[in-house]
Amino acid sequence: MSPANHKARLSACLPFLFVFLWSTGFIGAKFGLPYAEPLTFLLTRYLLVLALMIPLVLLTRAPWPADARQVMHIGVSGLLVHALYLGGVFMAIKHGLPAGVTALVVGMQPLLTACGVGLLLGERVSPRQWLGLLLGFIGVTLVVANKLGDVPLAGMLVPAVAALLGITLGTLYQKRFCPRFDLRTGSLIQFLPAAVLTALVAWATESMRIEWTPQFVFALLWLVLVLSVGAISLLNVLIRSGSAVNVATLFYLTPPSTALIAWLLFGETLGALAVAGMVLAVSGVYLARATAR
After folding, report:
1. What is the pLDDT of residues 273-293, one digit of tens each?
2. Phi, psi (rounded to 5 degrees) for 36
3. What are the C-alpha distances in Å from 223 to residues 42, 49, 56, 273?
4. DSSP class of residue 223?
5. Average pLDDT, the chain
6. Phi and psi at residue 15, in whole multiples of 5°?
7. Among 12, 47, 70, 199, which residue has the least CB neighbours within 10 Å?
8. How far apart are CA 223 and CA 228, in angstroms?
């Protein structure tokens, strides 16, 4: 196999690897949140990421952005993608919103992104892409329909909607103002302001106590190494190389992937409606991404 073909196959696998890794975030939250308040959990996660990245940046002499404006843009994208999105997701789940409902709310991101790309990025969304986006959203709705239950949603939806706005605005902002940066120094710049903001809010609103159980340590290490280092790096690579809509459609695959992982790990049932929703979601993503190339 030629190097060019090998690189093309590797690039084709990256979106699927990202979806799998990103989907495990809900599983990590389920393991860890019983032992720490949401923002305290996230702050600990961010501090560990920074402790890993600072020596890596120094030892490898990773290049820094060329000017202060680029640093600011990368930092803002970090606040949106990490502090607002992750903070909203963790708070929603901790306060009782089912993970399936949270995934459904955040699953509106591709449609919201499609509405914003023309205005902010000048990207055109074709009719076939709109059809794929709508099919994907219907599929996601079917996947989580049996998990909605009789839940009082009003108060718990606020952090979930904040998470939706954070990931949508974050990916659009990064694609517009800072699509390319070194993943090592860029991660450091993104996580530092997220840690500062999260620490301030956690100090003001939480007790900041942690039960250091084996389950919490496992969840923390998984979220640090697999999500904050692995999945976020892949997201940055995908934002750099693809259109905003093309990247956003991948988030439609997160709820079906999470449902499959929960079925394997926790024995959560998958009904015929959920399976049909997975097929629709995958079909919608395929249609939207195929026409975006």
Report:
1. 766 776 776 676 666 655 544
2. -160, 150
3. 9, 10, 18, 30
4. I
5. 79
6. -60, -40
7. 12
8. 6
